[in-house]
Amino acid sequence: MTSTRSRLSGYAVVVLALALLGGLYTAFLAPKPKAEDPANQSVAVKEGRQLYLQGCSTCHGLNNQGGAGGPSLIGVGASAVVFQVESGRMPLARGAAQAPRKTVKYDRTQVDQLAAYIQSLGGGPELPAGKLDDGELALGGDLFRTNCSSCHNFAGVGGALTRAKYAPPLTAASARVIYAAMQSGPENMPRFSDNTLTPTEKRAITRYVRFTTSESKNPGGAGLGRYGPVPEGLVAFLVGMGLLIVVTLWIGARA
Amino acid sequence: MSDSIRDRLKATGEDVDPAAPVSHGEHPVGDPTESTHHSYHAELDEQSAKRAELAVASLFMLAVVGTVGFIATFVFWPNEFGKHLYEFYTPLLGGFMALALLGLGAGAILWAKTLMKDEETVQERHLLSSADEDKQGAAAIIKEGAADAGLGRYPILRRSFLLANGALGVLAVPFLFGLGRFQFKEAAMAKTGWHKGSRLLDELGRPVKLGDLEVGGVKSVFPDVAGGRHMADSAVLLIRMRPDVLHVRESRKDWVVDGHIAYSVICTHLGCPVKLYEQQTHHLFCPCHQSTFDAANGAKVLFGPAARSLPQLAIQVDDEGYFVAQGDFNEPVGPSYWERKPHYKDEVK
Amino acid sequence: MASFGEKAAAGTGTWVDDRLGSANFVRRSLNKVFPDHWSFMLGEVALYSFIMLLLTGTYLSLFFEGSSKEVLYDGSYTPLKGIPMTAAYASTLDISFDVRGGLVMRQMHHWAALLFMAAIVVHLARVFFTGAFRKPRELNWVMGVGLFVLGLVEGFAGYSLPDDLLSGTGLRIAYSIALSTPVVGTWAAFLVFGGEYPGGHIIERLYPIHILLVPGIILAIISVHMGLVWYQKHTQFASPGRTEHNVVGSRFFPAMMTKMAGFNMMVFGVIALLGGLAQINPIWLYGPYDPSQVSAGSQPDWYIGFLDGSTRLMPNWEVRALGHTLSPNVIVPTQLLPGVIFTLLALYPFLEAKLTGDKGYHNILDRPRDKPVRTAIGTMCITFYVVLLIAGGNDIIASIFHLSINEITYTLRTALFVLPPLVYLLTKRICLSLQHADDDLLHHGIESGTIRRLPSGEFVEETLPLPPQYAVLLETTPERKELVAHNAHRLEGSPLAVEAKPKGFFRPRGGKDGQKELES
Questions:
Q1: Which residues of C touch A253 (CB under 8 A)?
Q2: For residue A4, what pLDDT is reported?
Q3: Smallest Cβ distance to A163: which of C271, C302, C404?
Q4: 3-state secondary structure at position C403
Q5: Domain-by-domain residue ranges, chain A?
Q6: Residue C493's pLDDT band (cuts 50, 70, 90)
Q7: Cα–Cα 20 to 30 A to A166, which of A98, B226, B247, B280?
Q8: Residues 111-150, chain A: which have Cβ within 8 Å of C?
Q9: Predicted TM-score of the model (pTM)
Q10: Contact between chains at A138 and C79 (C-beta distance less than 8 A)
Q11: Given an 8 Å threshold on Cβ–Cβ distance, is C270 in contact with A167?
């Protein structure tokens, strides 16, 4: 026979334990909400809309419906914005076979605001939170060679596509831009959704690209652009044979 | 020939030597290269000889400096991957080696140019063709010996000799067959790792589900068999495009699933993987020789040296929603070969 | 009294001579005269590069594993840790990162190979344009072409050994080229590779071919090639004192030998410089070979580049009939073209002799301008070759300059057939003009700078006949020989003659000393 007090204390213990567990969970294990709290988020969207109207609407339309100058941005997602704007490709200066990378017009905050605005229009792929190049190097290399090197070259220095299009060099691309490119599939680049290349795989590839293009050294001397045998052959002739022909002229000259 | 020259020649035995310096006045047009001195590098006075010697010696010393630098770098400089300054290990080694070698080489050349007499010398060329008696003698020996050998005189000997030599020549041939497993069979060429029901696995071995790819996406896939990831003829590219841009002929209508289409990546030109997909133009572009295929039109050739479209893999979706192959390809994948038939069922020319 | 050194040398010499009869050979050899024009040393660049290949190659063979067995990488290059690869690739990584000095040796080996082929091409051009391949040297020319082809094969085998992504792609292409051969293609490809691609044996087979078989053949041919130059004596340019029956130059010992040894060290030095300072074949960036992976901008080494170019430019002609497939799109650029090129190249001395009817010995070299047809043929062929080389890199050009690769390909296709005939005509014209300039000099003499005014009011420049010692340099045709004799006659007694110097295009042999004498 339990007394009322012991029954109540039993409930209290359970409630306390639950509260403790819940508190611990919330503090350490609960996933952080991606967006800021609604108030900040709508500020970003509002700022982004202003930036959009000023810098993008001429081509993409006041209501994002697209126009003669550019396609509709509904549904392209935040990643597309991060890629295009943070690499300086957008705003487009003039038409070409493909939008080239040029001076970046917006800082990081503005890019995020624009991205938030576009994301609010119709969803689409967006960058995950956390470090984007926090991946396994060897896995990234293997995935890069399967999915990326046939366009961008083994070292990410870029390559030719048909009719004056090109896969650009990856040297200048930040981790955000690389990740965003894979997600959004800009222009002729295929789209690698998160089910095609999981976030882990994307992080690994981003790590590999950042390492290869920015951190890796050339232990053999000057990299010659990392284009492969073409510059090597040129150097063999121009430098190698050139120097030696100068030497033969010296040897052959009398007095 | 002047007396002084003759005396000099006698002293070194050169008067009987085929190579001898040319003297004045003997050449019909007066050789402007001859000077009153016997050499280009006039008998050097003490001072310039000393200077030249020091110049050569300092170049030779570079060889020592280079070697010391080389050894020091080799032993002490960090060369482990990733270590600070490790990327200068090879350049320093090469640089010091070059210093040493170029120093020795330049020193030797300078020595020859400045300190050695190195006169311009004339030597007679001997006539290359032999004297008549040699030629006749050789011919006679050959004739006599050949007659003695009797190949002409004994026909049975001659014929059997030729037969024996021929036989021995043929004897070496079977060893080539030991290079093994060379027997060509068209059936082998026409088979890949794909079979009916084989799931499409990605490069990490996971099956691909309908919905994994977005429009404009691609995935490299391999057959669900042991070693399928590394089979050279089985690599396939799964592409998703909007169904309205995909033109599929009647006979292949059921080879595609909701805008998803799969092609062999082995280029029909020379076998390089055709993985470069242009999302907007639907072109597949081979990086080796720039053959271009229209993925929205049966991978027909648009440009470049490839003469045939990429074979298409018929796919469908199984009960669990994963992509599977309906069977092997309808034609041999990859480059052409002599025995390849002109027509295969359901092909796209 | 003879010094200790001299006595020791004499003693050794006698010891050797007693057993080998070497004194005669030593005497003749050390006394041998070699002409010493700078362009005669280009072949030596190839020779010394080959020696460097042997030295570095031997070192590498102590560490390289020519095996296609699959291993998991466990060396110090972290971006490939745990990746499955062949033992060949893994051992190359070990050489590059885990053997001290291994990378510099690997790079020196590869640069020496590129330099070897480059030197052969430049040397071949020199020999061709100066007509040094004529009788009695036709055999040497044929051997040289043989060395060129063997060098191509050896280089291809060599860079395929590490089994990296780039060279593995090349092996795949080689297999497919073999496959395309009519009738026997599939049998040949299966034979060499040990079955359907990849076969699993190709590295094991290329390895002994690369380190033993082909170098042995090359070494043997080089020895005969050089032996012939030694025995037949080197050719020389026309110059005062030089005739078809003599050799004018430096004695072998000590000057020429020292210069040659010094040049040997210089070639080694340049190879070491490149091997240390210029990265080549960074296989760790390419990754291990995988038949489903490829890199944009894949090219073979430069000396195979002309075949890559011809393959890229070829239209996609294929014939499918009568139960079989015939692929001119592959056979023409990769088998027919090199077959024709190397056959014509090898036969050229005999073709030229036949067409010119020239059966004589030639030890004096031609100046290119004096044989305009040959020179024009040469520049025409070089143009053809260079267009193919450029075509081999068309995607690199497109990528760097943001041009359309399709347009580049169409342009080069046209250029391949339009440029060579234009270059032929242009070269021939230039040669003939240069000959006219020479004739002018012989006819009208050198401008003396003295202007005279004639009574009629006309201004005229005084010219002096070309002094014979310079005119003899132009003594290349019978007509010119006559002019030279005529000029010699006209010069007799003229005090101005010795001061006159011809303009520009050739220097009289004699340098400073010679000139001093002339000016006195």
A1: 38, 511
A2: 66
A3: C404
A4: coil
A5: 33-126, 128-215
A6: low
A7: B247
A8: 137-138, 141-142, 145-146, 149-150
A9: 0.88
A10: yes
A11: no
CB contact under 8 A, A154 and C38: no
Average pLDDT over residues B204-222: 95
Segment of A197-211, C25-39, C432-446 carrying the highest mean pLDDT: A197-211
Residue B39: is its pLDDT beyond 50? Answer: no
Residue A127 contacts residue A80 (beta carbons within 8 Å): no
Which amino acid type is present at position C251?
R
Please tell me which chains touch C, using 3 or more CB pairs under 8 Å as the contact test: A, B
Q: What residue ranges do the domains of chain C occupy? A: 36-340, 367-444, 445-508
Tokens for A86?
A: 């943070």
Tell me what percent of the residues of chain B surpass a pLDDT of 90: 68
For chain B, how big is the Rg over CA atoms in Å?
Answer: 39
The H-or-E segment that residue C326 falls in is: strand C324-326
Architecture label for domain A128-215: Orthogonal Bundle (1.10)
Q: ipTM of the assembly?
A: 0.88
Q: Could you give the dihedral angle defined by the CA atoms of residues A61, A66, A69 and A71, in that order, rounded to the nearest 10 degrees?
A: 140
Residue ranges of B 256-295 with Cβ closer than 8 A to chain C: 265-266, 269-273, 275-276, 287-291
Task: Name the least confident of A186-200, B235-249, C495-509.
Answer: C495-509
Residue C82 C-alpha, separation from nearest chain B C-alpha, in angstroms: 14
pLDDT reported for residue C491: 66
Q: How many inter-chain contacts (A to B, CB under 8 Å) are there?
A: 85
Asked whether the domain spanning A128-215 has the same topology as the one spanning A33-126, the reply is yes
> Could you tell me which residues of chain B have a Cβ less than 8 Å from any Cβ in chain A?
40-41, 81, 86-87, 89-91, 94, 109, 113, 120, 203-204, 209, 211-220, 273, 275-281, 283, 285, 287, 290, 292, 303
Q: How far is CA C478 from the centre of its chain?
A: 33
Q: Do C361 and B128 touch (CB under 8 A)?
A: yes
Mean pLDDT of C151-160: 97
* Whether the bond into C368 is cis, omega within 30 of 0: no
Asked if B155 contacts B84 with a C-beta cutoff of 8 angstroms, the reply is no
Question: How far is CA A200 from its chain centroid?
Answer: 14
Contact at CB, A212 and C509, closer than 8 angstroms: no
Cα of A107 to nearest chain C Cα, Å: 28
Question: According to the CATH classification, is domain C36-340 in 1.20.810.10?
Answer: yes
**Range of weakest confidence among B297-306, C19-28, C492-501, C506-515:** C506-515
Q: Which residues contact B300 (CB under 8 A, 6 or more apart)?
A: B293, B294, B309, B348, B349
CB contact under 8 A, A232 and C302: yes
Higher pLDDT among residues A163 and C490, named by residue: A163
Predicted confidence at residue C510, as pLDDT, reads: 40
Q: Does residue A64 or residue C352 have the better pLDDT?
A: C352
Q: Tell me, which fold does domain A33-126 have in CATH?
A: Cytochrome Bc1 Complex; Chain D, domain 2 (1.10.760)
In terms of CA atoms, which chain C residue is nearest residue A100? C402
**DSSP classification of residue A70:** S
Give the pLDDT band of residue C517 (cuts 50, 70, 90): very low
In angstroms, rounded to a whole number, what is the distance separating the alpha carbons of residues A184 and A126?
8
- Restricting to A residues 155-194, those with a Cβ less than 8 Å away from any Cβ of C are 155, 157-164, 166-167
Classify residue C440 as left (phi > 0), alpha (psi -120 to 50) or beta: alpha
Please, what is the end-to-end C-alpha distance for chain C in angstroms? Answer: 44
- Within A123-212, residue ranges assigned H as helices are 137-147, 149-152, 175-184, 199-210
| For the ranges A206-215, B123-132, C180-189, the one whose mean pLDDT is highest | A206-215
**Residue ranges of chain A whose pLDDT lies below 70:** 1-6, 23, 25-40, 254-255
pLDDT (0 to 100) of residue C259? 94
Instruction: Report the gap between the CA of A9 and the closest CA in chain B (Å).
Output: 51
Give me the mean pLDDT over the C416-434 stretch.
Answer: 97
